[in-house]
Design brief:
CATH topology: Growth Hormone, Chain: A
CATH superfamily: MFS general substrate transporter like domains
Number of domains: 1
Strand content: under 5%
Order of helices and strands: HHHHHHHHHHH
CATH class: Mainly Alpha
Distance between the termini: 30 Å
Largest sheet: none
Shape: globular
CATH architecture: Up-down Bundle
Oligomer: single chain
């Protein structure tokens, strides 16, 4: 499906409109893919026969992948733009999600979760860089709407998997269905992502040696970082453990485990 013709994209305003739409679709895809994993988590723990402590260590692999990918992606985007990292990360999420619903060995699950976290972290950084550029060029506030699309995608992802499981469709086939939808999102968004990002770093200042004190982030940046750490920790705990808590503490069927994160996603989407 072609939303904008190549000829039309020569017009700067139409091109900017295409980039805005592309960014919204990509944010939706990020939320859609990551939240779709939440209802599958209790199934993974049952397949592996892990206790909470061992399973918690396994889930850390995803966070580790994201932490390593985030700083590297910023440098990659400065060199090759947003299009390739966004497309590659979305495609990797689409490929890995069915694997997370199928693998039954701890080592392969750990590797797959690491790659899944790498893709999600890389996609988040590349998308936010693109969102900043698009918002700046649009001369109006767009960031909250972009992030709102990620929340909406998360709600759609967890609802889709939960609904398919409720219809007695297997976890593997449900994950494949989400991956197919992700491929459609890739075709809608990636062609209109930003090819190149202007390097905003000042070359002159980069040549000047800075003291250790000058290199340290400002207190406000540290405060924002702490706030983000707390928020993401809460969101991650809700995604990783709410379904397990619902099934093991209240005896809810694993098929409906996604309902726990569904209501969390509803609250998050409404708040944004």
């Amino acid at each position: 499906m072609i939303l904008f013709s190549r000829t039309a994209l020569i017009d700067p305003e139409i091109q900017l409109s295409a980039q805005r739409l592309s960014t919204r679709f990509s944010f939706f895809g990020l939320g859609f893919a990551t939240a779709a994993w939440a209802p599958l988590i209790p199934f993974a723990q049952q397949r592996l026969h892990f206790n909470h402590a061992d399973f918690g260590l396994l889930l850390l692999c995803g966070g580790l992948g994201a932490m390593l990918a985030m700083p590297a992606t910023g440098k990659i985007v400065q060199r090759i733009g947003c299009r390739v990292p966004i497309g590659f990360a979305l495609l990797l999420l689409a490929v890995l999600l069915p694997s997370l619903s199928l693998l039954s060995t701890p080592l392969m699950m750990a590797i797959t979760l690491f790659l899944f976290g790498t893709a999600a972290g890389s996609l988040g950084v590349a998308l936010n860089i693109q969102a900043v550029v698009v918002e700046k060029n649009s001369l109006k506030s767009l960031m909250s709407g972009f992030h709102g699309m990620a929340s909406l995608g998360g709600l759609a992802g967890v609802l889709t998997i939960t609904a398919l499981l409720a219809l007695s469709i297997s976890a593997v086939m449900s994950a494949f269905a989400v991956s197919l939808l992700l491929v459609i999102i890739i075709f809608l968004s990636v062609p209109y992502s930003i090819k190149a990002v202007e390097n905003t770093s000042l070359e002159a200042s980069s040549k000047v040696k800075k003291s250790i004190r000058q290199r340290l982030p400002q207190p406000l940046i540290i405060l924002i970082g702490i706030a983000c750490f707390i928020i993401f920790m809460v969101e991650g705990a809700a995604m990783d453990w709410s379904g397990i808590y619902l099934t093991q503490q209240y005896g809810v069927n694993t098929t409906f485990a996604g309902l726990a994160y569904t209501f969390f996603a509803i609250a998050m989407t409404t708040g944004r």
